Amino acid sequence: MIEVPAGLQPLLDDFRAGKRIALARAITLVENEREGFQAFLHAVLSEGARRGRRLGFTGPPGAGKSTLLAEVASAYLARSESVGVVAVDPTSPFSGGALLGDRIRMNDLATDPGVFIRSMATRGSLGGLATSTREVLDLMDSFGFARVLIETVGVGQTELEITGAADTVVVVLVPESGDGVQAMKAGLMEIADIFVVNKADRPGADRLIKEISSAIHLRAPGNDWAIPVLRVVAQKGEGVPELVLAVEAHGAWLERTGELAARRRGRAERRVRDVAERALRRLTWDDDRVRQRLAIGVDAVANGRETWYSAADGIVGEVVQSRVHNRARNQE
Amino acid sequence: MIEVPAGLQPLLDDFRAGKRIALARAITLVENEREGFQAFLHAVLSEGARRGRRLGFTGPPGAGKSTLLAEVASAYLARSESVGVVAVDPTSPFSGGALLGDRIRMNDLATDPGVFIRSMATRGSLGGLATSTREVLDLMDSFGFARVLIETVGVGQTELEITGAADTVVVVLVPESGDGVQAMKAGLMEIADIFVVNKADRPGADRLIKEISSAIHLRAPGNDWAIPVLRVVAQKGEGVPELVLAVEAHGAWLERTGELAARRRGRAERRVRDVAERALRRLTWDDDRVRQRLAIGVDAVANGRETWYSAADGIVGEVVQSRVHNRARNQE
After folding, report:
1. In whole angstroms, what is the distance from residue A62 CA to residue B110 CA?
2. Mutate to test the interface with A, among B132, B155, B162, B319 (most CBs of A within 10 A)
3. Contact B136, B86 (CB under 8 A)
4. Fewer CB within 10 Å: N-end or C-end of chain B?
5. Chain B residues with beta carbon closer than 8 angstroms to that of A280
6. How confident is the model at residue B213, as a pLDDT?
C-alpha cells in the first residue's frame, strides 16, 4: 500500500511542484478511491508537518455561509495567504447552487489565482463522505495552502463529523432562521468556537444574539475560551474584519493551551481507525466465500427463514473463526 | 448471539404480551447496545413477517413536519390503526424542541393510548445512529403497530439514509424556506414519493409547487409512480385527508409493481452488511494486540514518523494476515 504505483509518479511530481491541475487530479483520485490513492496520500503527508489552518463554516441553509466564507477568503488573499476551499454543503453556490446576488462574488473568488475551490459531492456510502472529505482536506494542507476553509450545512450527523476536522468552527445563524435556539440544541452549540449572527441588520438580530449568549453561559465550564458572538452583514462586508481577528485569537488560544495538539491527536486516532476499518470492510466483502454467504443470507432473510442477525452471524463466523484458530495456533 | 440471555426473557415475554413499558425498555436496550440486544431483536423478528407500513416525513427545519405527522397520526388513530412514531430530527418537538402552538397538539398525541412516540438522540458514532434507528423501527414493527411514522430532518447524509428505511417518503417544504429547489438538489428529489407544500396559504406557495412540479418532470423516466405535489395547511388540517389517500395509493403501487418486495430485499442486504460490519468492528478494536498497535500507531503519527495510512496498514496486517494464513492452511 505504501508504495506509490509507477503510474502515479508523474502526478506526485506535479503535485510536489505545486501545479494546480495536479491538485485537482489528486482530489479526483482520492474521491474515487482509485488504485494507489492511499499510497499517494501517505507520500504527500509524509513530507513534513502540515501548516494549513483549517476554518469551518457551518449553519442552516440560507444563513449566508458561502458569502461569509468568500469575504473571509478575500481578507486572507489580501494579505497574500493562499486559500483552499472545500464545500460539502449541497445547497452552497460553491457546489453549483447559485444564489442570486452572491454569484458574482463567488465567481470573483473562483478566478483568483490564490484560491482553489472544490465541492464534494454528497453521494457515496454512509461514512464514505466524511472520510473522503478529510482526505481532500489533507491534500489541500499538503499542497501548501495557508488557509483551508470548509463549508458544511450545519444539520446532519455526517456533516457535523466533517466540521470536526476544522481547527476553528464558525457557526453562522441568521435572525430569520427562527430555529436559532432549536438548531443549537442539535449539536451546533457543542462544536462552535465562534458564533456569527449574519444579516444582523435585519429585525430579530438582537434577540438572536441574546439567545445565543445565554445558551453559551449554560455550557459546561472547564473550557476557558470565551466564545464570541459576532454581528455580521456578510453581503456588505460588515463585521468581517472582526471575524478574522476572532479566528486569529482562537488560533492563538489553541496553541497556547495545547488544545491544538490535543485535537489533532484525537483526530489522528479517528483517522487511523477509519482507514483501517475501510480496508477491513473492503477485504471482507471482496472475499468470495463471504459474498456467497451474503447472497445466501439475504435470500434466507427474504424468505423469512433468517433475520439479519442470524445471517450476519454466519458471515462474522466465516471471517473471525479463522482468525481465532490462527491465534490459538500461534500460541501453541 | 442468537440465544436470548436468561435475564432478558421476562422483557421478551412482556414485549410479546404487548406491554408498552416492555417496548420502551427494549428500545433502550437496543439504543445502548446492551448485552443480548441482537439476540432480542433476532427473537422478535423471527416471529413472522412484519406488517407495519413505514411512512417517513422529511424536510428542512421549520417546515412543519411534526405538525403534519401529528395530523396524519390522528387520521390513522381515528380509524383504529395504532401508530408508532420515531423522531430523529433534533429540532422536532417530539425530541424536546417545543414549537409554540404545536405543543398542545403534540401533547394530545402523546397521551393517546394508541400511539407510542420515541425520539432518537443524535449522539453516537458515525453510522451508529442510522443502524440504531433502523433497529428501533424493527422493534416498532414487531410490537405490532399498524403504522410506523419516522421524522427526520431532510439535510444530512445519515438522515437521508434513515429516511430510506421508510416504505413511503413524504418530503415537506414551505414557501418561505426559499431554498426549495436548492434543497431538492440535495437528494430530497431522489427520495421523495410524495411532495407536500405545507403552509400553502402563505405567499409563494404557487411558485414553489410549480418549481417542484417541473423538477419532477426532469427526473429520469422508468419510474411509473407519478409523484403528487400536495397543498397542505397542517396547522388547520387542510389537505391532510388528501395526503392520507396519496400514501394509500403509493402503498398500493408498491405492492402491485413488486417494488415493495424489491425495496425490502435491498434493505435486507444493507442490514446484513451493517450488522456484520458492526460485529467485525467491535471484534477488531476489542482485540488486545490491535489496541496496542493502535496506541503505538497514533503516537507515531503524532510524532510525524508515520501517517494514518501506514499506521492503519499495520493494524490491517495484524487482523488480516492471520486470516490469510489460515485460509492457506485450510487449502493445504
Report:
1. 33
2. B155
3. yes
4. C
5. 280, 284, 316, 319-320
6. 86
What is the domain partition of chain A in residue ranges? 1-47, 49-256, 287-330
- What distance in Å separates residue B78's CA from the closest CA in chain A? 31
| Amino acid occupying residue B109 | L
Q: Does A121 touch chain B (CB under 8 A)?
A: no
- pTM value is 0.76
What does the pLDDT read at residue A309? 93
**CATH code, A49-256:** 3.40.50.300
Which of B158, B187, B283 lies nearest to residue A157, judging by beta carbons? B158
Closest among A53, A65, A123 to A94, alpha carbons compared:
A65
Residues in chain A closer than 8 A to B323 (CB atoms) = 319, 322-323, 326
Residues of B in contact with A185 (CB under 8 A): 90-91, 96-97
What gap in Å lies between CA A81 and CA B300, rounded to an integer? 30
Q: What is the mean pLDDT of chain B?
A: 82
Band of the pLDDT at B131, cuts 50, 70, 90?
A: confident
- pLDDT (average), residues A111-136: 72
Distances (CA, A) of A229 to A177, A205, A236, A239: 16, 11, 18, 11
CB contact under 8 A, B157 and A330: no
B114 touches chain A (CB under 8 A): no
Name the grid cell of B112.
Answer: 393517546
Candidates B240, B195, B194; CA nearest to B74 is B240
Is there a contact between B61 and A155 if contact means CB atoms under 8 Å apart? yes
Q: Can you tell me the mean pLDDT for A302-325?
A: 81
Residue A206 CA to residue A203 CA, distance in Å, equals 8
Q: How confident is the model at residue B94 (pLDDT cuts 50, 70, 90)?
A: low
Q: Which residues of A245-259 are buried (b: 16+ CB within 10 A; e: fewer)?
A: ebbebbbebbeeeeb
**A156 to B161: CB separation less than 8 angstroms, yes or no:** no
Which residue type, as a one-letter code, is found at position B261? A
DSSP state of B188: I
User: Confidence class of residue A178 from pLDDT cuts 50, 70 and 90?
Assistant: low
Q: Which of A38, A122, A157 sits opposite B309 (nearest CB)?
A: A38
B49-259 folds as Rossmann fold (3.40.50)
Interface predicted TM-score (ipTM) of this complex, two decimals: 0.80
Q: Would you call B304 an interface residue with chain A, using a CB distance cutoff of 8 Å? A: yes
φ/ψ of A161, rounded to 5, equals -60, -45
